[in-house]
Amino acid sequence: MLMPPFILHHPKSVNEACQIAADLIDQNQEFDWVSGGTDLLANYKWRINTKPNVISLSNIPGIDKISNLEIGCMARLSDLKGKSVHPIIAEAASKIASSLIRKSATLGGNLCLDTRCFWYNQSEDWRRSIDWCHKADCGTGADCRVIPNQNTLCVATYQGDLAPVLMVLGATVHLIGPNGERVMPLSDFYQLDGMKKNVLQKGEFLLKVTFPKESRQRIGSYQKLRVRDSWDFPEAGVAASWIEGDVKSIRLATTALESIPKDHTEEIEDLVNSKWNGKESIKSLAALIKKSVKPVNNTALPPNYRRSVVQVLVKRALSKINGDS
Amino acid sequence: MSAGYRQQPNSSRKDGKRVAGKQVFPPPGSGGSRPVMKERDLDYIPKSVGGKEHQPAGSHIHDRIRTGTIVGKSLPLVDSNAKVTGQAWYGDDVRLPNESIGKILRSPHHYAKIKSIDTSKVEALPGVIAVATGADSPSSFGVLPVTKDEHAMAVEKVRHMGDLVACVSAVDEATAIEALGLFEIEWEILEPVFDPKKGLEDSDEPIHWRGKYHLSKTNVQKRVFQEFGDRSLVENPYSSSHGKWTMHGVHHGFTEPHAVVAHWDPNGRLQLYTPQQVPHYTHRALSTVLDVPMHQINVIRTFVGGGFGGKSDPFPHEMCAAILSRKSGRPVRITFDREEVYWINRGRHPSNIEVKMTADEEGRISGFDIDALIDGGGFASFGHVTSYYNGVLATAPYELGSFHYTGARVWTNKPASGAMRGHGAVNTRCAVEVGLDEMAEEMNVDPIDLRLANLLPPHSRTITGFRITSNGMREALERVRDGSDWENKFRKLPLGKGIGIGCGFFISGSGLPIHWDPNRFPHATVHIQVDMDGGVTVHTGAADIGQGSTTAVAQVVSEVLALPIEMIHVRSHESDTSPVDLGSYSSRVTFMNANAAIRAALEIRDKLLNAAWDILGYHPNTLVINDRRIYYKHDPAIGVSYLQALHKAQEDKGALISSGAYRSPPMGGVHKGAAAGLAPAYSFSAYVAEVDVDVELGLIKCTNVWAAHDCGKALNPLAVKGQIIGSCHMGLGQVLSEKMVYGRTGHLQNANLLDYKIPSIHEMPHVEPIIVESSDPEGPFGAKEAGEGPLLPILPAVVNAVYDAIGIRYNDLPLTPDIVYKGIEKKRKKLKLEDATELPNPRYTHGPKSIELQKLLKKRSEEHRKRDIARQTTEDTSAYVNGVLFGFDPNIPLEDQLEGWRMATEPDPEQLAELGLAGKAWLKKEQREMGGEN
Amino acid sequence: MTPKAPSEIWSAEVNGEPVETLITSNAILLDVLRDQVGTLGVKRGCDLGTCGCCTVMIDGDARLSCLCLAGQVSGRDIVTVEGLSDGAHLAPIQTCFAEHGGSQCGFCTPGFLISAQALLTKNDSPTDEEISIAIEGNLCRCTGYQQIVDSIRAAAEIHRGEVEPAPPASDPHPNPHPEGPDEPSMPPGHAR
């Protein structure tokens, strides 16, 4: 497939990257960041929201660090394993796409994954034949094809696997751009809109993720629903973590059910703080999560089904906790 | 005279006499990487001719030419070194000097008339070399001569999104793509039809118009009615089942996208490079569309990166490349991206299938009643045949009391369906085998015993008159039953785990060629040429699409001539040098092409033996041919090398040349459609599948498959096993995850390999391939097909195993987790259970009646077992026709024995009201009967 | 004409040979390898990262060349299927794919070979699970993967030195021009 034309920039340091971004902003030029390219390049081949400039992060040394408390944006998914990576992260990373994709794809790319929708992830000719869609409207102001008669919100689905896991480990993201660094909990990084996706401002990119020391005490699980055990994005995903012996420390997050990954920790606070009675409590938690998520019909499996089985995924994610309480 | 081969000193007897057959000979001649002649490998020589090869199915006509060198041994494909080094050249790897890049403009509409096309802006774009539209190719074509409904590019209207509108060639891809945006087209949008049920109704603007043969104003492309047997048998059944199935369309999913290179050479001949399964039909279609004689076209088949039926039509893009090249005088290369592969489709038909079946008190199958409405998409393709196959290929391996089939294929505004591995037989087979399982459950008998007690024997006729020769069905069933430990698992596994059975029956080559011809043109022809160097060049048109047809040809020639396989060089790529072979479809290549090759090789062998006779003075009947040497049977020390004999044979003539051909024998009935499904031999298969169902999520995982396939004789067991395992993979895709999803707007929503879900390695169960060898009397060395038949049983085996695991019958394919979950939830709520893990799973509930019936079935299958062995090994080909089980005399036509016996290809007026969904097509009249368009 | 991305010199080591060519800034590695370097053994199957037919080794890692910007891997060491054999000596993985039925139509084969070789180079005793994971990104529609796994297991045996590799097919034949007798042996009196 023919690539759209663009200029690829190769900064050799974070500063240079920010400078290139600042210069492009000054020149009123649009651009995208590329790390592993496995998400962006597929979209570019389909001519989805292409830009005339692409800034590659692959030549910047030092931003692929992996340690217990920090993972750099350019850390490859295939490297997210071993002693210095939290077991839940390793578990989730090993389930992403295929081993070949994981050799290229990066943590930063996975967190900033473009949202997906079967009206959107299509070739240019295909999208033209449906008169485009809200997310890639090519200047036509096209309506959303998933939920017609509303063109204010894009409901494309976020299908990254790592975000919920990092959320339940209490991760903090570090963003950097021409205006300096910003730090925030990962849960605040995402913004409910399939187009905006996250709070990255023009010229900013996600530099690294850090973890609180407390995360090392946490254990948990990531449950991924998919049709095939290779290639497929999650149709639903649930991450859970807790500190051994302390049910009040439960954190839950979901992915692939809305336009953003969702941290449910606050929602479940009341439940985990009330009297814990094993299976019954887990059941209530599962029901609560089911109520909370609102999948739409734009992935391989129908939304009703995905919503129903979230309960099973929650139950399984927490299955090891029963012995602790 | 005494200068002969000397014996090896250590192989002589003490008294100095020679030990016959024990000598190790020095090199018999050049060729092969072995320095000395190998001894005859008796393990690969049949018992009937003095070897050790076991022949449970009796001797075979080709036994006398077995040399024990090649046939039956696991060999690498002869072209595998090209493939593992990256040197195999596929469609897009053909890069000719001065090439240009072609691109196709595709319809953005489902259904529309083209009022005008303005190409002036396209032509004005710098870098554009040639432009063509439908006006450049008014002649229609199609793979079947009876339904030529395609054009290179749309002439009057487009029939599905992605249909070809125009094409352009340019200096590079970017320019060609830019040019596509400059066509100015005026459309008149028409109302599309997506639902095949709507296709049965009259419409304002039928997708195609067939003149006086058009069925009212519907979109029905073909309707079929067949009724055989005694329908009174089904009236008061002891047991019955009824399944209404919805099967989604599936795609071949070959890894190589279509690609073509056309080059109109300076001599005015078209050289067309294309990855085709059936180069000959492309050859014919090109001649029609381009208005040039066939001899001015050279179709060069590249390596084919997978076909499975999806590369067997002549394709419009092949015409486009040729037209562009003709206009520009430059080579044109067109390569599809994956989405375009789905637009051209030709995958398995989306189908609505209804199967009713009945059995009597003795567990005999008194009737099959099948109704199949299949969605053909925008063009006919192979659909005429598919319409028949959906019914007639379900008439075996069981003996039936009656058979009733109504089928219809409708055009819809979707990419065309066509032939795909297991053509037409897969979906109905699944419905039928699941129906049998249901009846077995109702009767509380073992479904394998039910099948074993109702099988047609070897050398018999099906209810519709197909001639069955060899038949390994019984052995296949017994071996999967024993291999899988069926008795200890079926209806005994815990919730979520299940085991199921399915059988299959498929043609081994189509008995009649698609192009009817009065001159008895052979189905396959093979030429062999042997020059002084001793190398054997085989010319064949058989298209190797990865299944190993080239290897099969090399093997049989190597076997007949007793030469190492590296001395056999197969040339099969060019129509200029290859004799006509009808191509790689309907599982015909091994059967037909290898038979032709054997005939050609026998001619060479005779010449060599006669030359040896000349030299040695021993009659060929007393000569043995073995590994590059020909010697006297009773004294192997007396002989000549292959080269010596060859050079003698070449005296005054030069290279030895021979030609062999195959044409299937006359057979079959005379009723309308009798030829559909006729084959010189049939393959049989039985699979047992084990599944694990996650009852909470609805996810199914197939864990083990025991796959027995009767391929007559495995010429190359490695390749046969590869076909069996590969078929399991493809069938599993259809039953578990693959579907072409058409959304509410009629757009195909998953035209890529991420969303079209072909199983990965993690979804593959362990497959235990079991080769059954029934030795077909007419097959090459007894061989039958192994490429398509093995796909059929996996679908019902999985569906039946899912029932065994969770007690729910599904009639929607694929069994995606949401479908499975829905079924589980429905049952859970019905039984008022708290949790899906509490579901009951099915168990036998024997009563006195069922125990009695079970005994009866066992007894009958034991009797039939003896009958079958006798018929097979003693070559008892006395009459056995479907119906003997019901007490009829095979020597008297059934209609003369039984009043109720019927054979009809059109419904009676009083039947019309009761016909099923597809049968509704018979409510309409053809235009000529309505007084329209005479 | 279509606006073009700017051109730049791209250099890398492909199959052990230094390669220098002019590419556009937006070039995809797969396109560069097929259209400019000429390694047509690298196949284009889906072009979107699923089928794995385009897999190449980059610094020893099996990666998808269709989702790889050439500019991001300049200066790296790239191995395609053409670079697996040592002259006429096929790599064990290549002979094993041929002998164990790992290749049918052959279109996905280059990708599988690279994935398998990348695994075996690092680990000559892979478990079945490790083999599955190594090839989970490659799609084969012909074989059902089983004989591919057989092939990789067999190649691992050669890598571990347990089995001798086969000699190249182009080696001189052991006895191509035998010194046979001038005349055939035959009993007296039978000659015609």
Description:
With 325 residues, chain A is of the alpha+beta class. Chain A has helices at 14-26, 40-45, 87-94, 99-104, 107-111, 124-129, 162-168, 186-189, 269-273, 279-292, 303-317, and strands spanning 7-9, 31-34, 53-56, 70-72, 172-177, 180-185, 205-210, 218-225, 236-243, 246-255, 262-263. Chain A contains 11 helices and 11 strands. In chain A, a hairpin with a 6-residue loop joins strand 10 (246-255) and strand 11 (262-263). In chain A, helix 10 (279-292) packs antiparallel against helix 11. In chain B, 25% of the residues lie in helices and 21% in strands. Chain B has a 7-stranded mixed sheet with strand order 3-5-1-12-9-10-11, with helices on both faces. In chain B, helix 5 packs across helix 6 (316-328), helix 9 packs parallel to helix 17 and helix 14 crosses helix 15 (642-649). The radius of gyration of chain B is 29 Å and the shape is globular. Chain C is α+β, with helices and mostly antiparallel strands and 192 residues long. Chain C has 2 domains: 7-80, Beta-grasp domain (Ubiquitin-like (UB roll), Roll), CATH 3.10.20.30; 84-164, [2Fe-2S]-binding domain (DNA polymerase, domain 1, Orthogonal Bundle), CATH 1.10.150.120. In chain C, 27% of the residues lie in helices and 14% in strands. Chain C has 5 helices and 5 strands, in the order E-E-H-E-E-E-H-H-H-H. Chain C is globular. The chains are: A alpha+beta (325), B alpha+beta (934), C alpha+beta (192). Chains B and C meet through helix 1, helix 3, helix 14, strand 24 and helix 16 of B and helix 2, helix 3 and helix 5 of C.
Roughly what is the average pLDDT of chain B, rounded to an integer? 93
> Biggest sheet of chain C: strands, sense, closure?
5 strands, mixed
CATH class (first level) name of the largest domain in chain C: Mainly Alpha
Number of continuous helical runs of chain C: 5
Radius of gyration of chain C: 22 Å
CATH superfamily of the largest domain in chain C: [2Fe-2S]-binding domain
What would you call the shape of chain C? globular
Give helix % range of chain C.
25-40%
CATH superfamily of one domain in chain B: Aldehyde oxidase/xanthine dehydrogenase, molybdopterin binding domain
What fold name goes in the CATH topology slot of the largest domain in chain C? DNA polymerase, domain 1
What is the number of independent domains of chain C? 2
Rg of chain B computed from alpha carbons, rounded to a whole number of angstroms: 29 Å
Distance between the termini of chain C: 81 Å
For the biggest sheet of chain B, the summary is: 7 strands, mixed
- Kindly state the mean pLDDT of chain C as a whole number? 90
Strand order of the largest sheet of chain B: 3-5-1-12-9-10-11
**CATH class membership of one domain in chain B:** Alpha Beta
* Biggest chain contact: B-C, 90 and 71 residues
Q: Structural class of the helices, strands and pairings of chain C?
A: alpha+beta
Shape of chain B: globular
